Amino acid sequence: FFFFFFFFQAEDGIRDVERSRGLGDVYKRQEYKWDASVTIESTKGITKLSSPSHMISMEFKDENRKAIVTLTNQFRNTGTDLILLFQTSDPGKASVLLQKLPSDEYHAALVSFYPTFGEGTSSENALKEFEISGSGEYIFILDCSGSMSGNRIKQAKSALDMLLRSLPVNSKFNIVCFGSNCEFFKPASLYYDPSTLQEALNYLKDISANLGGTDLYKPLAEVIKLPFSPSHPRSLFVLTDGDVDDSKAVIDIIKKSHHNMRVHSFGIGADASRDLVKGAAIAGHGSFQFVKAGEDITPKVMQY
User: Fold this and answer.
1) Which helix (H) or strand (E) holds 282?
2) Beta carbons of 178 and 141 less than 8 angstroms apart
3) pTM of the model
4) Which neighbouring-strand residues pair with 182?
5) Half-sphere CA count of 173, side-chain side, radius 13 A
6) What gap in Å lies between CA 197 and CA 201, rounded to an integer?
7) How many CB atoms sit inside 10 A of residue 237's CB?
8) Would residue 24 be called left, alpha or beta, if left means φ above 0 and alpha means ψ between -120 and 50 degrees?
9) 119-156 tens-digit pLDDT
10) Strand pairing of 82-88 and 261-268?
11) I need a labelling partner for 230 at 20 to 30 A (CA). Which of 32, 46, 111, 236 fits?
12) DSSP 8-state symbol, 217
């Protein structure tokens, strides 16, 4: 596989003349969309092309040795690097690219090959495992209890919005809201595409902190019961203020099931339980983040 990273930066607002008087420059958000096109040329045929960061469309030419990737109507996604992954035919074959520098005194060489990772593990198997890892199942467990009302639910929904927009194109996903009870967006996880993304974003708009208490054990137990596919490794993202009924039981059930899923956690608000948020992530072999009231959540979400 080859990786390309592209970095985009754009102004996030326009100067607010009225509010800037006597206060220095104050900016207000400006809604915008943007388009981009990337051309990839290869000496070998391009057999696979995808982006784990953006929804893309593609066109192949010249016997698949040339690919044109387009992104249209991208909405306020300039904070996310554009990542393109592509594979050429015969990827296991070693190759060398040699370039003569203008000075005629030096040459530059690029050697590309797949190593063997030990007895019984071929480079093809390693490549297959890598391909599978990019197409996981992502289940977002969102705390909608009464204690999440106000700014906390807004921050959690903002984080979930960014996570949804950043999923790999071949992945599956679902949303679970919990409080005293739990509610699933869909009975089974959906394949990620533009239509299912839009359906999930519409569902997210109507979510509020109206589900009573904070029983995190119940949604975890329900998710664990769902059929598990080895081709789509499961990752759970828990967004909560950490004020749950039984932290020990939550951490224990994650420990017992960590071989089938990885758990990441977000602690929302200054009062988020560090024991729960950190303990759940450690038990689930994942990572954790804490977000204070009013803090810009974007940098922490983009780490995933």
Assistant:
1) helix 274-283
2) yes
3) 0.59
4) 178
5) 26
6) 6
7) 22
8) left
9) 544 444 544 444 444 578 999 999 999 888 888 899 88
10) unpaired
11) 46
12) H
